[in-house]
Amino acid sequence: MSRKSFKELLQKYLRGDCTPEEKAFVEHWYGLLETESGETGQQLDMDELEDRLWNRIQDKMDTAEEDESTRIIPLRTVLFRWVGVAASLVLVGWWYFAQRPDATLLPSLAKSIPAPFTQEGWIEKTNESANSVAVQLEDGSTVKLDAHSSLRYPKHFAADKRTVFLTGDAFFDVARMPSRPFYVYAGNVVTKVLGTSFFVRNQQNTKQVRVEVVTGRVAIYEEGAEEKTTSNGVVLSPNQAATFFEEQQHFVTGLVEAPQVIKTPEAEKKSVSFEFDDTPLVDVLTRLEQAYGINIEVESESQNNCPLTADLTNQPLYTQLDIICAALKSTYEVQGTTILVSGKGCGD
């Protein structure tokens, strides 16, 4: 078992996604830690607990390899010791087998944070209704939890960070606190923000996690990426989205299905107008870029001076682009987070 596999197992345990076998494995080593050192999960943070448990496993494995024949130990003591070591080895052997590609693991039916992580103050909300449910966090952040989704979070966040665990889909409106980053764990993806609003869609059936940004900037990365020499992650701006494909272990970036005008102090004072009268295409596209925060490029510079007369106000972005391209005999396509407008130009 690798250190990375053990870290992922602890994260699953914390989320309540373990199988009975995985749960037994973690609780076995936690029990040894508590019995032999007197330390508990309530006294340690997550990183410290992981280090202590991992070191405990390594110590026990080293003990198992010692040559007991050179030591004089009462038979009863030897028997009990090797029963304990054998049990540990069976659990490690099971975990190694479970990590094989052909291993089949039963899905967990756990609905709450299992011991020893059921620290006082941890809360779990599960939305059993058909409508979204608002969850208010202590820092002022709000989470709109979709139907059949669950959120686990502490009643009081740590002093240096705010961490929650999501199963399913939710919309997050995070209070801005630069000194206390907000982390959302969903599947194998971590979303890190300082203060913004975004969607997280954890599609467990397809093993995909999708993040869509509404306001602010969001950094998303594969869980454990901070320990790798090359990080697997992306930074998203408003109207941008990224989907993590677990099997391929990579992100695919793009635009949200319905881009919205970005809210700014200027935009709130007056509605954004998209009324154009013989306006060059370059100016039309510049206004769209500024309104939506999306990069729009033309394939040929000969298109830039083509005039457009149209009222695109109150139309969604892709409808606006449809009207523009119909009037100028052009086409457009979304390429990643950029929109490319193609055409021969108005003089051809």
UniProtKB/TrEMBL annotation:
Residues making up the signal peptide according to the UniProt record: none
Gene Ontology molecular function: sigma factor antagonist activity
FecR protein domain boundaries: 130-218
UniProt-listed InterPro entries: FecR, FecR_C, Ferrdict_sens_TM
PANTHER family in UniProt: PERIPLASMIC SIGNAL SENSOR AND SIGMA FACTOR ACTIVATOR FECR-RELATED, PROTEIN FECR
Gene3D superfamilies per UniProt: 2.60.120.1440, 3.55.50.30
Record flagged with keyword Transmembrane helix: yes
Keywords assigned by UniProt, alphabetized: Membrane, Transmembrane, Transmembrane helix
Transmembrane segments: 78-97
Protein name in the entry: FecR domain-containing protein
Ranges for domain Protein FecR C-terminal: 274-341
